[in-house]
User: Fold this.
Amino acid sequence: MKDIKNFYDNAIKLFSDNYVVNWHEHVWESAPGVLNEVLCERLYEGACDTYMDKVLISDPITSGEATPERFRQVNNVVVEGIKRHPDKFIGMCFVNGGYKEEAVEEVKRCIDMGFVGVKLYHQYFINDHILDHLVEECIKLDVPILVHAGRAVRFPNSQPFCSDGAHFADMGRRYPEANIIMAHIGGGGDWQWQIKAIADVKNIFTDMSGSVVDAPMIENAVKMLGADRILFGTDGTLFAGIGKMLAANISEEDKKTILSGGIYDRFLKK
Assistant:
């Protein structure tokens, strides 16, 4: 047991000795509009135990109609989570961009409360023109957009409007000044296809979250995108995310770049 503890203590120095930003995590509701305090505390304790300095949280509506009333409600749940742990939690504002004016107003409201970005789920493909209005507003506000993503290859697609790398690449080319994150290459199907699709679109970043721990995933992402376009994230798989970073066969400097958020750290400092 002592040997295991010594191994862990030495390995985790990558986290304890460096600045760490987790760009993809969530708090959830226990009932509509009510923060699940148990899960919130579990996330906070896990982040503290693994030396994460900042954790970006959102509460996306993953099923049912994401009406303006509902997305305001879930963002208020995020506010409650931040109030419990303002030292560590930072908000990402979930909206349904199909409600054009209401979505923009909600983003402004959340940014005024200290949120630093926008979270979109699978209500629309990211390159759907209905979202142009929202993307343009995020450019004006200079905030990033984290978008649920995936490339299904084996099972029936239960999310017909889930964006894949081609959708992100198209939007990135149309709006080169936008700051867009293609979520969880480790949790969205064919990660190799996803990385290739965005490789030459420099304003599309990705996060490494998800339960998939294929050995070459981080290495290939760094090779094709560069470490400065990869963000550390866990999305509910805290220790899998840590394991991927500790085991990745990349340089120490690349690991530090990913953990710190690189140039994206400026959004936290605004």
